[in-house]
Design a protein that fits this description.
Distance between the termini: 30 Å
Largest sheet: 6 strands, mixed
CATH architecture of the largest domain: 2-Layer Sandwich
CATH class of the largest domain: Alpha Beta
CATH topology of the largest domain: Heat Shock Protein 90
Radius of gyration: 19 Å
Strand content: 15-25%
Number of strands: 6
Shape: globular
Structural class: alpha/beta
Length: 221
């Protein structure tokens, strides 16, 4: 069954919009309750506060990665970088995103930063033991994510999902992110390549397509 990309994005935008306010309210409520004091209350409130913070940071990224907002041309690089950094804060993964990456031309392309965010989520899923994600400019006017960590790679199922060579019925919760990332790249007119020929190192490259006839996703492993 085919699902219209815009319908999916709009639905995701609505869900995130509806959830951001109550999650943020949790943090406000915690601040008030903390004034009561008490060691037990303080410990419980810290747990609630930390959890609320994680949920809020993830929702902000999901809104841009999956929702309609991420498809708009007005998306700012600084804001996107900040959302990505906050998303990975508190995890075992270090994000290195230089201020001049990607190029200005790439940033202006609709959907480029949205797809980068999806790649970062995919990178997180490949780093179960922690590691580092570093963004670099590439020679084709795009961006490369260098993912380094124990067992950092895409298994065959994830590769097939990324390339879109599996049916929707074959997708699983483990492979859905790879599938969505590949489809976003195709939808916005980008070429997505992956290379994990070096152990514990995965490179994901996103570049603008040179022509409509060029293959959208190429496996260079």
């Amino acid at each position: 069954m085919q699902i219209d990309m815009r319908v999916m994005e709009l639905l995701a935008s609505k869900l995130c919009h509806d959830l951001v306010s109550p999650v943020s309210a949790i943090n406000n409520g915690v601040e008030l309750i903390e004034e009561i004091g008490g060691s037990v209350v303080a410990e419980a409130m810290k747990l609630i506060g930390d959890s609320g913070g994680v949920a809020s940071r993830r929702l902000r990224l999901y809104r841009l990665a999956y929702g309609r907002a991420g498809s708009e041309n007005a998306l700012g690089l600084k804001d996107v970088r900040q959302v990505a950094e906050q998303y990975l804060s508190g995890t075992k993964i270090t994000l290195v995103w230089p201020e001049d990456v990607p190029s200005e031309g790439a940033v202006e392309r609709r959907g480029f930063l949205k797809t980068i965010l999806n790649l970062i989520v995919l990178a997180e899923e490949t780093l179960a033991y922690g590691g580092a994600v570093t963004l670099h400019r590439d020679e084709e006017g795009g961006c490369q994510l260098e993912i380094v960590g124990r067992n950092a790679c895409l298994n065959l199922r994830l590769q097939e999902a990324l390339e879109g060579s599996v049916s929707v019925e074959e997708l699983t919760p483990r492979s859905i992110q790879a599938y969505l990332t590949g489809r976003f790249a195709e939808n916005f007119g980008f070429k997505l390549t992956h290379d994990h020929s070096i152990p514990d190192r995965l490179n994901l490259s996103l570049t603008p397509l040179l022509s409509e006839s060029e293959t959208p996703i190429v496996n260079v492993c």
